[in-house]
C-alpha cells in the first residue's frame, strides 16, 4: 500500500528521490481503512516535499513492533525549532508565518493527521532539527 501511494506521489515530484525501507516488516496488517491510511501518508509526504528546499530526498521507513506498525517519513529540509514542535498539530498553526505562506497551505495537514490517528488509538510523533530535517512517525495499531 505504501508503495502505491509513493508511486503516485513520484509522478507529482519527479525531481525527488523517494526511498522506501521495508526490510523490518513482514506482512503485518493494520487496523485502519485504506482511505485514512493513504490520507495520512499523503499529508506527511506533502510536507516532506514542501519543506525540503534543495535536499530533494525523502525516506520512508516501515517497521513492525509488537502492537504497532510504524511508518516514519524523513526529510532533510529546513526543520522545525524545538519550541515549535508540539504546536504543529494545532489547527491553522504554521511555523514562521512569512516563510511558510509562500509555500501555500493553511496549517491543517498535521491537525487532520492527528485527528485521524487518534481515532484509531495510534500515535503521531515528530522529531526535527533546524537545518537538518524532520521525521514524522506514525504508529498504527496492528490487526490481530
Ligand atoms: P497544509 O494545511 O497545506 O497542510 P501546512 O503544511 O502549513 O499546510 P501542516 O501540515 O499542519 O500545515 O504543518 C504545520 C506547520 O508545521 C507547517 O506550516 C510547517 O511550518 C511545519 N512543518 C510541517 N511538516 C514539516 C516538515 N516536514 N519540515 C519542516 N516543517 C514542517
Automatic annotation (TrEMBL):
Protein's organism: Parageobacillus caldoxylosilyticus NBRC 107762
Taxonomic lineage: Bacteria, Bacillati, Bacillota, Bacilli, Bacillales
Protein name: Signal transduction histidine-protein kinase ArlS
Histidine kinase domain span: 1-144
Source organism superkingdom: Bacteria
UniProt-annotated location(s): Cell membrane
